[in-house]
Amino acid sequence: MVKEEQELANRPDNTAFTQQRLPAWQPMLSAGIVIPGFVIIGLAFIGIGVALFVTSHSIQVLELDYTGVENTEPCYRCSDPSSKNCVCTLEFSIDSLFEGPVFFYYGLTNYFQNYRKYGASRDDNQLSGDLDYFKSPGNDCAPYQYNSNNKPIVPCGAIANSMFNDTFKLYQIIRGSKKLVPFDGKGIAWWTDYNIKYRNPSVTPLKNAFNDTVKPLFWSKPAYELDPTDPANNGFINQDFLVWMRRAALPDFRKLYRRITEGDYAKGLPAGNYSLEIAYNYPVMSFDGRKKVVLSNVSWMGGKNEFLGIAYLVIGSLCVVMSIVMLIVYAKFKFPEED
Amino acid sequence: MNLFEQFHRLANIYFVGLAILNFVPVVNAFEPEIALIPICVIMCLTALKDAWEDFRRYQSDRKLNNTPCFIYSRKAKKFIERRWKDVRVGDFVKVICNEIVPADLLLLHTSDPNGVCHIETSNLDGETNLKQRRVMSGVCISDPDFEPESFNSLVVCEKPNNNLNHFKCYAEKPDKEKVGAGIESLLLRGCTVRNTDHAVGFVVYAGHETKSMLNNNGPRYKRSKLERKLNKDVIFCVILLFFMCLNGALGHFLWLQALPTVPPYLVPDSNGHLDSPGLSSFYMFFTMIILLQVLIPISLYVSIELVKIGQIFFITNDIDLYDEATDSRIQCKALNITEDLGQIEYIFSDKTGTLTENKMVFRRCSIMGTEYPHKENAVRLAVLEESEAEENVLFNKRPQPVKPRWSLDTEDTNFEDRQHQHGSHRKSKVAGNAQSNVAFSSPLETEVIPDRKLLQRISRAESSSRSSRSGSSSSQNIDPYLDFFLSLAICNTVVVSMATAQRQRVNGFSHSLQSNNPMDPLSNMPKKSGYFSNIFTSWQRKPNRNRTISEDSVVEGDIFNLPEIMEEPGDINGLRRCSLYAPTNSDKPATTSDNLSYEAESPDEAALVYAAKAYGFTLLARTPDSVTVRLPSGEDLVFEVLDTLTFDSFRKRMSILVRDPITKKYVLYTKGADYAIMELLGTPYAENLRGIQKKIAADTQHHLDCYAKDGLRTLCFTKKVVSDKEYKSWFVNRQRALAAIENREQLVMDTAVQLETNLCLLGATGIEDRLQESVPDTIMALREAGIQVWVLTGDKLETAVNIGYACRLLEDEDLVINMSCKNKLTCTSIVDCALQEVRRYNEDPRNVDTTPDISLVIDGLTLNMALSSDLQDRFVELAKHCRSVLCCRVTPLQKSSVVKVVREKLKVMTLAVGDGANDVNMIQAADIGIGISGQEGMQAVMASDFAISRFKHLKKLLLVHGHWCYTRLANMIIYFFYKNVAYVNLLFWYQFFCGFSGTTMIDYWLMIFFNLFFTSAPPIMFGIMDRDISAEILLGVPELYRTGQGEGEYKFSTFWVNMLDAFYQSLACFFIPYLAYQGSDIDIFSFGTPLNTISLFTILLHLSIEIKAWTAVHLIIIGGSVVLYFVVTLAYSAVCVTCNPPSNPYWILPRQMADPMFYLLCLITTVVALLPRYTFHVLRNSIAPSPLVQAKHLDQLDPSTRSEYIKEWRSFRGGGQVKSSRLSTPPSPTLETPVGMYPQSPTVSDIMGDEFTLNVISENYQRHLHL
Asked: pLDDT for B1199-1209, tens place per residue?
């Protein structure tokens, strides 16, 4: 026998794998088997849908368009590109307590921050504080790389250049007098952006790092002076700058401006009249855009979004309906075990 | 070289084009370097695969190149040992016995005094018989010590070519005399020198110019049907891509047009200049191509190759396709047509060696019009077969049927003896296995028990001829009986070798096609010869016993001792006495003949020589110039061989011209196919017996017909006495023909025809070629699988029809249309007539549900006419309606033209299977060529795409592996298209929201990884391992094979349905997240990450809907893909801070994964995307289950109920096993029909005289009960 075994050197291995006999589970997709699955999925989805819907419903949102397209609007005056340092005021009222913490967003529509070349127009090395790139910004930044005097622009690129520069102040009008609603500008950007991705050069004072550079063309003040009140909020780690640099995915977007978490308004905005003072700088007429401010509170699922809840409800119900259809099919076409 | 091959592929050119496009700054979508990654990975993968193959080749080459050999050194004046790689043209090389010839050598000297060198060419063509090569004559003095220095001629030879059977050269001696030489003086590289101590040759071709190397042209590239279809769909993808890009460009244009002025997000070029909308949308078109390039599934081609490698791995590893007898697996030579195995509609099969064993067994003979049926021999064969069959079960058990027959044995043939005998049986089988490379040596073939009557007749003839010879009158007439056996022994090319001097096989020749025995042959030699003697002893006893039971013990006696017997002519008692002492005679010289073993080029010849031996006419030796035959009287006759007219397929006969040592006459013995011989019969044996000769011819013809009906191969033997004058004049012609340079073959053949006239019929033989095991079963299964089986054979009609019935190609109840006509006109009318008949048969309402049981039998001549251009269409139409077609007497060329016509006219997938050189054309013409590595050499295997060792392997190869490979690959390809479209469309939809600017919301690295790593392994695994139905069911229910035929599963509609599904799924995957994130502060990559994750889940879950059988491997790979995705993406987003500007993947996924919305989105989107497909599957499986689904249900039952269901199913489908009773017989067709069952014996006139026959042989239809 030993001899024979030797002879059969070419005999294939007789294993389950090589003989394709591995134990296998063969799921059969037929009506009888999937009904329970459909029912369970359907019910679960309806449950989730209800939860989402209720949550979404409890979120309060207030949107105020201040573009000033119509001449009746308070900011119509400012929408003229020629006007400089224009300030306009928007009045609105809240009927019931706007529960806190309230998030204050600015919104733009028809603004394609996701435009490919726009997105590429930045220099991450510069933004991470590398001084070499202060002197010679990356070519991606062109034409916002050097100014007409061939001085490097810091921060370079189209994104930085086009930074949103309207500023807002919210007042509650209490018996005719304006009471400033305090804004919290800390931590509105991603923690990783603020602490890791974007770095200022380790030069003190910060201003010295920007020697021999110029500010972006559209900017009114250099990067190291973005926030005069807080020295830690300047340069590339300015929260507003960070928020802007994180490009929006879709052309209609909003970006977090401030949070209202302090003082009398920590619990929310009480009912009453409010006045919003807008330093109107950012031109949007060139692309038929709209500007707005959005006041919203958030839940575990983020901002208000009815869609997801409805979707869950619809699909859940559909699954239930399907399971009924399956049941009918199953009753009509039983398969061979039975016959 | 490797890279060059890569670029040869159009796909790669496309890929490179894309990469170049990426380097054009105005259109690039990504960083150009990154864009090169996919092509690099894919090319690396292919290159790696090729490099590995190259490496293996290199290793074997190196081994071969360093093989030692002896080259003559002019300095040392002797042969010194060098390496193969040192061999140069013009060297003298000495080859020792059993060495492999290192280059093509012109043979100059051998150790043999006759200047003969024996070689074995199994490395080249698999033929294990010995071939003779002769020293180039007249160039060297053939003294015992050859001195290469003395060779001073100029050798001129033709340019290197790959024809193994042809060679021309001449040597010009110093005195300007030219001496020609042909293939008979050439030792081909790769051959092994046998039976010759040493040989010296002059290298004419070396290295790559050798004939064997020129023949060695790597694996052929065939494109499978699926791939051709796939390419069409790829073109659709290109069109789709074009429209999507156009859409992008147009959208970009309109978007730019709609902008009132320049917005801040529109970035001008470095000069501050903005392109016009038209120009930038033109650029955008190309950007879109780069962006959406994945739509063209380049990686699909690589994946397909990988999948096929995996599939071939499984095919070659199938233990059911392994043949233990030859220790060989199935060989896959074409690597890229595995899936074609699942789509075969027509099989063209050779008969001899394919359906049959090609182990020839002498069964019967007819001499001078008398038939000798050899009944004892038939009994022996039956016993042998049974015992062989039983051996497999239980070795110790004695074969039952044999026992009673032996009961008459004398006491001393006791139990042990039988045991021993049986043991030797078994050993002989083992030995046969071990030595399967030694041709035709199993006892089945070598042993023939003589017919008693014939034996008597011979002894009478012998004595009479002796007496007449001893008497002064040198009788002109040797007894035809003796002549018959002489011709059996002489008229062949069998080479004699001694069994004790077994050939040593040399292993390790890299081109070796046959699986060599790993044992060291030398060490086993004594054992082997031991086995042989065992065989012989056992068989010496056995006939003894068989004869003891016979009623009259006249011829009792050991056949091997016949010479002894014959020494006392006519004395019957003496005969008996001798036989009693037979065992003691074993040391007498006569028994040495036992040790002879014959090396024949064709098994027929060996069988005949063995048969002659059984009657005492032992072929002792053969040299080019003489044949030595030992007569029953013990006398050795040495015939001088004057010429051998070798066999060719045109003449269909061979002759040998010898000089009778006694009468000194020139005698021509001719053997050949009956129809090739019968028309050459001329001058009768003796003038006064004209009438008798005619009668003999008629009787013999009748016997031949009977033999053919029994499925025996027939050969006729004739003799012709050539007068001196005739010979001399012919000899001159012959020499002229042989010396001719131009048109030599034709001239030589013409001279052969000249001589082969006026032959005188001696007799005929019937040789059985047994069917291989499970051939009928395989043919039945293939037919149930919807495959039409055609058998193309060179045999005569009756033999073919008989084999047809034996292997169930034809059934008793079939309507057999027999077409055979001699002129075009009748042929046309027959075809028309039959076509009409067949149509009517099919339209008959009673035949609607049954498979048409119509078979067609056609002969070569008719086939030629039927295949002519005007009849072709009608013939093919007719053949289409026939379930099986039997073509007999076809030439190799006809075989291939039949295949071509059917393949082109019917546009079907064809498979040709054959084992011999005559099948090569057919094998190459078919979509798939399958070679059977049998006894007829390796040409068929070399030309084939797959090489199997038994015909029955075809069943599993097609029904199981073919089905699997096809469904796997088809599903994988469809899935691949789907996957790419579904993923790429996500990007496309996003373009609507980014101003058609070519932005991706997914980091490019992750996109590349998505295709290359996260979602590539599962479909490949799916393509290799998915198993829709188990092998048992596929074999049990051959109908399932039909799903793959024709369009199969990979239909045009399937493609588009999947494309639509892909569109739908991409819509769902994009717009559900879009609607959920609409108006929020989501950033680009935070938006893209859930999309990427969702599509990963969707794509993988889609696959898991398609997967039919989950094994641990499936789970691991799919689970592993998901894990890999998360690990890689998390790692990437945790590490890459500014590594891939301008994209910004840092910390995106971790942040998303902390958000419950992410999970909620993933959940609902995946469900929405897959719900339609899932529901569709469920409903289809429930409402209208395909046969495959039904079969799958069977798979889940336990084996016993399953086999019951299979039976029921088959009867339900009318498959064939359970044939119901005959319900009705439809009205007979208009043609006058003999109602009798076939086989009705066709008379001689049927074959010879009739203009044509179209007889509907049988028409007992069977109807199947439809339950």
From this structure: 777 777 777 76
Chain B (959-998) residues lying within 8 Å, Cβ to Cβ, of chain A: 964, 993-995, 997-998
Among chain B residues, the shortest Cα distance to A242 is held by B1083
Establish if B1198 touches chain A: CB-CB under 8 angstroms. no
Would you state the torsion angle of the CA atoms of residues B832, B834, B839, B844, taken in this order, to the nearest 10 degrees? 140
Residue B847: which pLDDT band, with cuts at 50, 70 and 90? low
Instruction: Take residue B932 and report the two structure tokens written for it.
Output: 């059977």
CA distances from residue A171 to A94, A166, B244, B376 in whole angstroms, order as listed = 12, 16, 51, 122
Q: How far is B686 from chain A (nearest CA, A)?
A: 58
- The pLDDT value recorded for residue A183 is 92
Does residue A315 share a domain with residue A172?
no
Subunit contact A125:B1138, Cβ cutoff 8 A: yes
Using DSSP bridges, classify how beta strands B198-205 and A290-297 pair: parallel, antiparallel or unpaired: unpaired
Does B1141 contact A138 at a Cβ distance shorter than 8 Å?
A: yes
Same domain, A124 and A76: yes
Residues 317-356 of B with CB under 8 A from A: 317-319, 322, 324, 327-329
A322 and A250 within one domain: no
**A222 and A322 belong to one structural domain:** no
Q: Is the pLDDT reported for residue B124 higher than 80?
A: no
The strand order across the sheet containing B854-859 reads B331-332, B946-948, B928-932, B910-914, B346-350, B788-793, B884-888, B854-859, B815-821, B1252-1253
Whether B1111 contacts chain A with CB within 8 A: yes
Residue type, A277: E
CB-CB: which of B269, B322, B433 is closest to A11? B322
- The catalytic residues of B are 350
Claim to verify: residue A241 and residue A266 sit in the same structural domain: yes
- Cβ–Cβ of A143/B269 closer than 8 Å? yes
Closest CB to B1081 among A162, A253, A285: A253
Residue A20 lies in a domain: no
Q: Is residue A25 in a domain?
A: no
ipTM value for the complex: 0.95
Same domain assignment for residues A285 and A306: no
Total domains present in chain A: 2
Give the residue among B1183, B1030, B1192 at the shortest CA–CA distance from A32.
Answer: B1183
From B1033's Cα to the closest Cα of chain A, the distance in A is 13
Q: Which residues of B touch A305 (CB under 8 A)?
A: 1076, 1078, 1080
B528 touches chain A (CB under 8 A): no
Token couple for B1126: 């998360």
Q: Are residues A39 and A171 in the same domain?
A: no
Total length of chain B: 1267
The pLDDT value given to residue B852: 58
* Whether A250 and B324 lie within 8 Å, measured CB to CB: no
Structural domain includes residue A6: no
- The Cα B183–Cα B168 span in angstroms is 7
Domain that holds residue A221: 63-298
Phi/psi for A172 (5° steps) reads -95, 135
Residue A9 located in a structural domain: no
Mean pLDDT value of segment B385-390: 50
Q: pLDDT at position B380, please?
A: 72
Nearest Cα neighbor of A315 from B1235, B1169, B481 is B1169
Do A325 and A181 sit in the same domain of this protein? no
Of the candidates B1159, B1160, B1093, which has an alpha carbon nearest to the alpha carbon of residue A49?
A: B1160
Interchain CB contact of B1072 with A (< 8 Å): yes
Alpha helices by DSSP H, listed for B298-450, are 298-316, 375-393, 402-406, 415-434, 443-446
Count other C-beta atoms under 10 Å from residue B794's C-beta: 23
Question: What's the rounded Cα separation, in Å, for the pair B77 and B148?
Answer: 9
**DSSP strand pairing (B130-134 vs B331-332):** unpaired
